[in-house]
UniProtKB/TrEMBL annotation:
GO process terms (BP): polysaccharide catabolic process
An annotated Gene Ontology molecular function: beta-amylase activity
Enzyme class, UniProt record, top EC level: hydrolase
Protein name: Beta-amylase
PANTHER family, per database record: BETA-AMYLASE 1, CHLOROPLASTIC, INACTIVE BETA-AMYLASE 9
Compositional bias per record (Acidic residues), positions renumbered to this chain: 505-514
Species the sequence originates in: Cucurbita moschata (Winter crookneck squash)
Hydrolase as UniProt keyword: yes
Primary gene name: LOC111460143
Catalytic activity: Hydrolysis of (1->4)-alpha-D-glucosidic linkages in polysaccharides so as to remove successive maltose units from the non-reducing ends of the chains
Keywords: Carbohydrate metabolism, Glycosidase, Hydrolase, Polysaccharide degradation
Length: 530
């Protein structure tokens, strides 16, 4: 899918003339051009006119009513917030060629004119080091970094030592071959099902990868990146995010289905995790505690009260064994995060790039006493214990910044029976970070079907030490008439733009339409999924 930019309308933004853009998306499979929107960057909350035009017929749309975003006076508490936009997850194809290259180039121009600070680029282990350990192919990502620099934008790089399901980007082939003969390199649940989208933290320091440890392999990957992208560190690359687990987050893969609202399951049943647990139990003089995880915990999609462990009254989580297990389980996760953030800080310490790590927002069942969704994910956070203090302290120790997702979520739309509270959980994580001096970066939820609550994002950005917000993610929906005008208003409400004279339109100036067949046609959901 490709996008073209055709200068079509002229509008005013921050008191200056501004060139609007009409975005056309091309799908080689159907050989049609869809002009998705005529976007006029005006102070008005709606465009005067928008349309979708197919090759076979024209469809007229009603004027777009954007979300209610206050674009008046900017709050002083937002002055230091930098805005980034995530690039498509498959910006580089599995064969290391650029996907949507002209679409991205056009999008970068639009973002620069709008006043966005930079973009975030996912860099996949399964693409760069796919065939052989130690053989890196950076060409596709180097080309993208060059595009970002030419657009005069900043670049935040996210290392992805995990797999993606949509679009499907697996772990490197050589890792999968090792996993076939050594299944215990993966996280394993109570039913001995492996999670094959990232390596288990239990093998961090074990030589299971052709004689090397995963920590050694991750370090060599980072060092190769640093060498290959050295010319971009002075002015373009502003930050590095380390993949800390499933979907890049510091957590166990306790939820195997994206939309599951159950409590999840503990992931401590691969041989290496069981061995570590056994040793810890014996050292604590409680050898029977090392036989496995809680026997009375519910399964993935069950509720807290479906078994005894997570019950609010007399649940096993409050027993001596429960405290022993949950303390060990969360400590192993924090130690894993410490190893990876320390690695990144060491490799990139003499560059200008800041180091970031992402924590999850496991907000289901937050209003219960046991907080089961957080416990199975590795956060020993309950009604009488703050599980984020130790996490924030670990980030502070490594001089790393914390990425907090779900900044667009509120309590209201969630079913009451889930006892969910993303607002309370965000407030708690902010409090722990503030206490330990950890700088926060925010992201919106990655679900492409979720409503874009810009008012909620603004509220979460205000009054806190957030220096960066990354909006996820560039794609077909991002530039659609249903979405882009609201995003433009959101950007203007955060930053009062001052356009450079070079960015102002020249009378009679025309821009060429950029058309190119896409490398791999994909759906809107695939471009938006995170």
């Amino acid at each position: 899918m490709e996008v073209s930019v055709i200068g079509k309308c002229q509008a005013k933004i921050a008191g200056a003339d501004f060139v609007g853009r009409e975005f056309g998306f091309f799908n080689s499979k159907v050989d049609s051009k869809i002009l998705l929107s005529k976007i006029c960057f005006m102070r008005s909350s709606r465009c005067e006119r928008s349309r979708i035009r197919l090759s076979t017929k024209s469809v007229q749309m009603e004027p777009i009513q954007s979300q209610n975003v206050d674009v008046g006076r900017r709050s002083k508490s937002l002055e230091g917030v930098k805005l980034y936009v995530g690039l498509p997850l498959d910006a580089v194809s599995p064969c290391n060629a650029g996907n949507h290259s002209r679409a991205i180039a056009a999008g970068l121009k639009a973002l620069k004119l709008l006043g966005v600070e930079g973009v975030e680029l996912p860099v996949w282990w399964g693409i760069v080091e796919n065939e052989t350990m130690g053989k890196y192919e950076w060409s596709g990502y180097l080309a993208l970094a060059e595009m970002v620099r030419n657009a005069d934008l900043k670049l935040h790089v996210s290392f992805c030592f995990h797999a993606s399901n949509q679009p499907r980007i697996p772990l490197p082939e050589w890792i999968s071959k090792i996993g076939e003969s050594k299944p215990n390199v993966y996280f394993t649940d109570r039913c001995r099902q492996q999670y094959k989208d990232c390596l288990s933290l239990s093998v961090d320091n074990l030589p299971v990868l052709n004689g090397k440890t995963p920590i050694q392999v991750y370090r060599e990957f980072c060092e190769s990146f640093k060498s290959s992208f050295s010319k971009f560190f002075d002015c373009t690359i502003s930050g590095i995010s380390m993949s800390l687990g499933p979907d890049g987050e510091l957590r166990y893969p306790s939820q195997r289905r994206l939309e599951s609202h159950g409590v999840g399951e503990f992931q401590c049943y691969d041989e290496n995790m069981l061995s570590i647990l056994k040793q810890h139990a014996e050292a604590s003089r409680n050898p029977l505690y090392g036989l496995g995880g809680p026997h009375d915990a519910p399964s993935y999609n069950e509720t807290p009260n479906s078994n005894n462990f997570f019950k609010d009254l007399d649940g096993s989580w409050e027993s001596h064994y429960g405290d022993f297990f949950l303390s060990w389980y969360s400590a192993e996760l924090i130690a894993h995060g410490d190893r990876l953030l320390s690695l990144a800080s060491s490799v990139f310490r003499n560059t200008k790039a800041s180091i970031h790590g992402k924590v999850p927002l496991m907000h289901s069942w937050y209003k219960t006493r046991s907080h089961p969704s957080e416990l199975t994910a590795g956060y020993y956070n309950t009604s009488n214990r703050d599980g984020y203090e130790a996490v924030a302290e670990m980030f502070a120790r490594n001089s790393s910044k914390m990425i907090l997702p779900g900044m667009d979520l509120s309590d209201q739309p969630h079913p009451q029976e889930l006892l969910s509270s993303p607002e309370s959980l965000i407030a708690q994580i902010k409090s722990a970070s503030r206490k330990h001096g950890v700088i926060l970066s925010g992201q919106n939820s990655s679900n492409s079907e979720a409503p874009r609550n810009f008012d909620r994002i603004k509220k979460n950005l205000e009054g806190e030490s957030l220096e960066l917000f990354t909006y996820q993610r560039m794609g077909a929906y991002f530039f659609s008439p249903e979405h882009f005008p609201s995003f433009a208003e959101f950007v203007r409400s955060v930053h009062q733009l001052e356009l450079h004279s070079d960015d102002l339109p020249i009378d009679g100036e025309e821009e060429d339409t950029a058309e190119t067949p896409c490398a791999s046609p994909m759906s809107e959901a695939q471009m938006q999924a995170a």
